[in-house]
Amino acid sequence: MSLKKVLGKLKTGTHSNPGSDDESSSGVKSPRAGSTANGGTASPKISGVFGHRASGEFKRASDTPASGPLSPADSGTSIDKSSKNESGIFHRRTDSPSRSNTFKAGLGHHRSGSTSSPIRAVKEKLHIGGDSSSDGDTPINRDGEPMSKNQLRKHEKQAQQEERRQEVLQKEKEIEKRKKDMEAQADAELTPEQKARYGNVPPNSYAAEWKREPRMNIVDFTANDVGKEVVFRARIHHLRKMSSKFVFFVLRQQLATIQAILVEHADISKYMLYWAEHLEAESVVLVKGVLQAPNNKQGGVTGTSIHDIEVSIHSLHVEAPVTEHLPFNVHEAEVTQAEVDDELSRPDNKEGHHRVRIADRTRLSNRVIDLRTTASQGIFRIQSGICNLFRSQLDSEGFIEIHTPKLQGGATESGASVFKVEYFGRGAFLAQSPQLAKQMCISADFGRVYEIGAVFRAENSNTYRHLTEYTGLDLEMSIDEHYHEVLRVLDRTFKNIFKGIYERYRPEIEVVKKHFPHEDLVWLDETPIIPFAEGIRMLNDSGWRDDDGNPLDENEDMGTRDEVQLGRVIKQKLGTDYYILDKFPTNARPFYAMPDPNDPNLTNSFDIFLRGQEILSGGQRIHDADMLLDKMNKLKVDPQTMEEYIQGFQWGAPPHGGGGIGLERILMLLLNLGNIRHASLFPRDPKSLPEKPVIKQLRHPEASTMHPPWEGQDRAAAGIDFQSIPKLIANYGDATNTSWLEPRTEIWRDPYTGAAVGFVPQDGFAITVGDPLCHPTQYLKTMTGYLKYIKKERNLKPLWLLVGREAEEVLATKFNWRTFSVVSEQRVDPARNPALHDSDVQRKVRHAEKEGVKITDYVIGNPVPGDMKKKVDARVEDWLKNRKGRQVHLTNIHPWQDEEHRQYHIAQTPDSTIAALVVMAQLSPDHGWQVKYSLDFPGAPSGSIEHVVLHAMKVVAQGGATNITFGGGASSKFTPGHNVKGTRVKVLSRAYQAIATELKLTNKTEFREKLGATDDPSYICYPPHGLGPLAIKAILNFFEDDD
């Protein structure tokens, strides 16, 4: 930055505070007497449009003082500033008129004298000699001092960042201009045939003429098809521009990829190439072309799954463009860890110049993109194959497929891991398995049944092998002589699955292996069936011990670590990844497991393992009703919750058994995926679903309108008062509702609920401001009663201003009112406050702290002492005396109004002079807090108001607040709501733009921007033909005060 440009920020005169960054770089200009650098009188800081909605008076711009002191805006914060010309209707000033505006950049200071040269003026100010050396070329900071080394480095870094940003913006502009130029040239130069070769397909063009054009799968293309014309749909996997006349594509269909080239020739125009090279990866395209042999030195294409053939594109149309930025594309997701490691190991590798593997968390958080990858495509084709092979094997063994309910009246196995749901006022559960329904089918003489369906487990297990919802492959069958009949059926089923997967899905397995390296599964013709106790002994004999260093107990179930280690031991001894453990102990099995006839501590049950982890749990069930009831009583399972289940056995059920397989578990282990979430289409675990919003409780439950204090009795007869308005505001109110505490506001009450609506009679109209004070579900009834009262009993014409979306929806849809928005509530999240990291704001705060400004807090429940109130009142009087011009307002300043719902933050200088005041008003739990007043008093040190406002926000944030409103501000445009259309929209829009431009209503305040304020639209609502000249005049008179 040049010295002259930096010096342009400094001002001569009696004040030393830095001026606006927006000031002309041509230097400091000396204003004429009675003026400021910005063309207006030195004015107080000015709030934005409706600076704090429903919380203060508003000031019109006027050079003529009023006849007496005028009430300021009670919430017109001095941190929201604009120039004098911005203080028109709906603007308020709330700072000290006696000192210069140091908060809002752009407002100048009073200066005297005249200096023809800005350089000379600054030199005089800084006492720089005219003949000094190169010091005049040294950059200076905002305080007029030479920059330190750190400041210079920071300055250079910022300049470089800005330069890069400008370069990017310029490049984007050039690209956009180039694009438009090329489109215009193409439209003028190309023939219809050339234009038809490329472009976007309209989304609603799939009901036109059905050409029955055959579409191909690229996986079927072979070298024998050279010269064949093909048409197919694919995604752009990757594209690379080789030259202005040559573009390479990699096109993808599920697992298969093929190279395609687009070359300028004949009807393939340069405009088509320019359009094509700017397509986004992952766009869905319709390709027509001719197959040809690749022309390269390698003799084949190495970067695709199809190596011996490529496509010469003749036409290309986008059927589904990518309209949102992708967190990653499939081409990037195809990078494997092995490829990354290989690149890192190369001697010519440069740090930061290698490819990166997309993390699992990122993949799972963007699941749709991840599912497009070849690995995911392979995984879920194999998953489909497992289900198909399971079905076909059991069908061949005489089973029938059933579909059991997932809503049950009792827990299937135990209450500890069950999801409870509300079922029409009664309790119900999501099925932990189809176990009970399967057994009931056996009791119903189905003989042999199986099911593939959802299973729910409410286990808070965030491990690599657990899900809260998974797909179960379950079977149940009657037993003739021995429960091992069930075991043998399951064994044959698993081996059929393994054999079929490796025979049918070898290409998919090889694709998956690139991302999840593993060896093929090994199993024996005769599956080992090992008693549980023997398996424990094998572990102990191998030297394995539990976490405490003790041998494992043969009568206790194994943990995951133990299972995995046993798998290693069996693989080493028996050479198999697949085996069965039989005769599990009783305490490791559910209540319905049949006890061993020779040892009551064991059961006729088994688990089947794959690569050292359980994939099935099964065995014989208890089919005798008395034995079942006895077992349930011993395990404290309430039989009444399973009456229908027990009845099936009381009516006679044959001996039977079965088992359940976790589909995702077997798929994970078969392919060595390492995390079961990769085997689930859209995985559900304890952390997968977003947290539901916290249900916010009323601040005053005793003042509810849903359950009023007189609920169930006549209020008047019982002598019970209506709920107080302050408590209703704290329960249901927004910033606008706080204006109802003003004496001029009349309150209508619903006689049944106590719901309230505030209005001000004005020139024959009922000016109603803000939402009704009640639960939103009561809006319709409340509004109906209020409007009937206004029209019939008061003979007033209703107008409703500054309502939220829900109230606007009721007025528009139920009463056919016209609605529009020109105002928005300006809200901030105090926990995410960018102003805490803004250098300008923090500089001002530090200045106030250096001046010794201290802040005293009086939170809710901690009243302000009487002597402090007197000091505040005196400072408010000082402030009021300096107010000038007519005021536009909703309420006056009443710091001690409704103290029960106010917090006070008072800034004082070392001599106990009050420098600034911020009053926070407690609103409903949904709306949080309002900056009711923010007053910067005369003579306060610079930065005081910034300091106290940020402090107040921090205090309410520590209390859990997530919403603060600074009040309303004018929107940048007129936005129609309901029932406003046609000519009326044009007229109202032009009228609003004219008023907004004249009064500068839309100038957004700097401080609110730095706080990250967002606009929450408020609506103006009026009945048909209800917004004529008299209504507009009534609204203006409502806001205006000439006292």
UniProtKB/TrEMBL annotation:
Its EC number is 6.1.1.12. Belongs to the class-II aminoacyl-tRNA synthetase family. Type 2 subfamily. The keyword Transferase does not apply. Residues 1-14 have a biased composition (Low complexity). Residues 380-683 form the Aminoacyl-transfer RNA synthetases class-II family profile domain. It is found in: Cytoplasm. Residues 15-41 have a biased composition (Polar residues). The keyword Cytoplasm applies. Its main location: cytoplasm. One of its GO terms (molecular function) is RNA binding. One of its GO terms (cellular component) is aminoacyl-tRNA synthetase multienzyme complex. Residues 1-201 are annotated as: Disordered. It catalyses: tRNA(Asp) + L-aspartate + ATP = L-aspartyl-tRNA(Asp) + AMP + diphosphate. This is Aspartate--tRNA ligase, cytoplasmic. Keywords: Aminoacyl-tRNA synthetase, ATP-binding, Cytoplasm, Ligase, Nucleotide-binding, Protein biosynthesis. The lineage of its organism: Eukaryota, Fungi, Dikarya, Ascomycota, Pezizomycotina. SUPFAM superfamilies: Class II aaRS and biotin synthetases, Nucleic acid-binding proteins. It is an enzyme of class 6 (ligase). InterPro entries: Aa-tRNA-synt_II (IPR004364), aa-tRNA-synth_II (IPR006195), aa-tRNA-synth_II/BPL/LPL (IPR045864), Asp-tRNA_synthase_2 (IPR004523), Asp/Asn-tRNA-synth_IIb (IPR002312), LPG_synthase_C (IPR024320), NA-bd_OB-fold (IPR012340), NA-bd_OB_tRNA (IPR004365). Pfam families: LPG_synthase_C, tRNA-synt_2, tRNA_anti-codon.
